[in-house]
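Sequence, please.
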């Protein structure tokens, strides 16, 4: 039976309030840890029975179910699974010795390499995964620069092999970056397909980013920050620039 009014004698209410109190004793807790208390508290009230409430409840749950169940960080597992295939398609078959590939993940959930593997068991390449999580921009840039040991003057890292574009690997090392499109900080490093003339008119870059692959059903809600972008700006950036991208990282000389 649903209680008509809320009162502390209700055991469900007591359990919810006690759980909230215990969690609140520990600092740096996230609000999502309180979600298990919500159903208990809701059973302490008599719910409205109007059609408007029922319709709103259905729309809300369908919307949040699709957003959080499909799109929120939805590209992490597909990207992790696709990396070995992407490397096999991007590297020349006769590439010797095996290529050492560093894969940097930034502003995403931790890559589940413990679940789907990191693709390191092939003879053509050896993959090492680095989880940079929410590393600050300056630290992220320094870490990315240090992961590219050799610089290249050519801004086009691709060459055709039997009619297909392949990545030119110098020194046996290759760096990939997996990051959401909503990370606008990366825009300044993106190089258009085919490269560009890096003359004095083009601002110097610490790194170059060349897009190799994109998964569209990915929304990075963890980067939703109305405090910096404003409410509409955050909505436009996070939802308007949805998708998870795998970039090839090179460093100009």
């Amino acid at each position: 039976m649903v209680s008509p009014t809320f009162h502390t004698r209700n055991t469900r209410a007591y359990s919810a309030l006690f759980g909230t109190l215990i969690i609140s004793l520990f600092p740096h807790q996230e609000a999502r840890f309180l979600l298990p208390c919500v159903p208990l508290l809701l059973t302490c009230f008599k719910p409205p029975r109007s059609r408007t409430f029922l319709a709103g409840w259905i729309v809300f749950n369908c919307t949040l179910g699709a957003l959080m169940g499909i799109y929120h960080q939805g590209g992490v597992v597909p990207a992790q699974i696709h990396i070995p295939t992407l490397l096999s398609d991007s590297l020349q078959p006769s590439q010797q010795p095996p290529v050492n590939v560093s894969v940097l993940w930034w502003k995403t959930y931790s890559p589940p390499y413990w679940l789907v593997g990191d693709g390191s068991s092939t003879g053509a390449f050896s993959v090492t995964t680095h989880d940079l999580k929410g590393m600050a921009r300056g630290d992220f840039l320094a870490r990315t620069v240090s992961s590219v040991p050799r610089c290249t003057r050519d801004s086009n890292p691709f060459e055709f092999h039997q009619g297909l574009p392949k990545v030119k690997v110098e020194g046996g090392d290759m760096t990939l970056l997996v990051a959401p499109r909503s990370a606008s900080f990366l825009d300044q490093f993106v190089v258009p397909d085919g490269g560009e003339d890096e003359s004095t008119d083009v601002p110097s870059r610490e790194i170059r980013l060349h897009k190799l692959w994109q998964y569209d059903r990915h929304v990075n809600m963890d980067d939703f920050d109305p405090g910096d972008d404003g409410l509409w700006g955050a909505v436009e950036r996070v939802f308007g620039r949805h998708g998870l991208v795998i970039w090839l990282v090179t460093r100009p000389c």
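The chain has a mean pLDDT of 80.
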